[in-house]
Amino acid sequence: MDKNIIIKDFEKNLNVKIKEYKEIESENGLILNADDLYIIKTYSDKEFEIALEFENYYKFVKQFIKAIYISNEYKYMVYNFIEQDRNVDYNKIKLINQIYDLVKEERKIENHQFGYIDNPLPSWYEFLDAEIKHSLKLLEEDTKIDLKIVLKALKIAKKEKVEAYLLHGDLGVHNFIIKDKLINVIDPIGLIGDYLYDFYYAILSDYSITDNLDIDFVISYFDRKEKYKKALFIIVYFIRMARAYKYNKADYEKFLNDYKYLSLK
Fold this sequence. Notes:
- By secondary structure, the protein is of the alpha+beta class.
- It is built from 10 helices and 10 strands.
- The chain has helices at 3-14, 45-57, 92-103, 124-138, 148-158, 195-203, 207-210, 215-218, 226-247, 249-259, and strands at residues 21-24, 31-34, 38-42, 69-71, 76-80, 115-116, 165-167, 176-179, 182-185, 191-193.
- The strands form 3 sheets. A 5-stranded antiparallel beta sheet has the order 1-2-3-5-4, covered by helices on one side. A 3-stranded antiparallel beta sheet has the order 6-10-7. A two-stranded antiparallel ribbon has the order 8-9.
- The longest helix has 22 residues, at 226-247.
């Protein structure tokens, strides 16, 4: 989509005149910062459909940032610009509690498939299995990893009956804007599955959160079967470790060192 068409349509419909548009680097579509007042984000047809579904489904959950204008014609959404607190210093327990409060707001969805909305699979187990296989591809250059623990965790997860929830799908510090020490969440990608996945995925999004954090403390959140919670945590840990291998090698080495001590006991 031509950037100038988006700008013209945006200014007309919001009745504003912007002095400067700054393009924000993104792998997914065009994102514009308009005078530090608005963020304009464009979507592909499928991404727009998912973003719209998420927007409507969670319109009353304050932590998810809502669009102030939606263009169905040009497939873009406009958000108020939020300036993040400077020199954010995470208090990990308070942050985890905020993530917990957010995930508790996630709701069941009538669905017979699991996984990413744009690429669903028949079962939660098949989604987890596919994510582990994808992670192995990311890690193929590294042969130091013992797969026994994550494969054992997958067997445990396979036995668990899981209800379908509409998840953010990429919850983590990279999609948090911290304002007045509270998290605001952007960029859902749309995932159908167990809400515990979003919870663990967010906690494991940055090694500074999990450093010296006891796994038993993390799985104490939510009243579910302990064996399954521990198994899912290990699976998500493996997935996050693979992402770190691709995007943050320094964190990867720390994740890998701790991975050796994970246990299902």
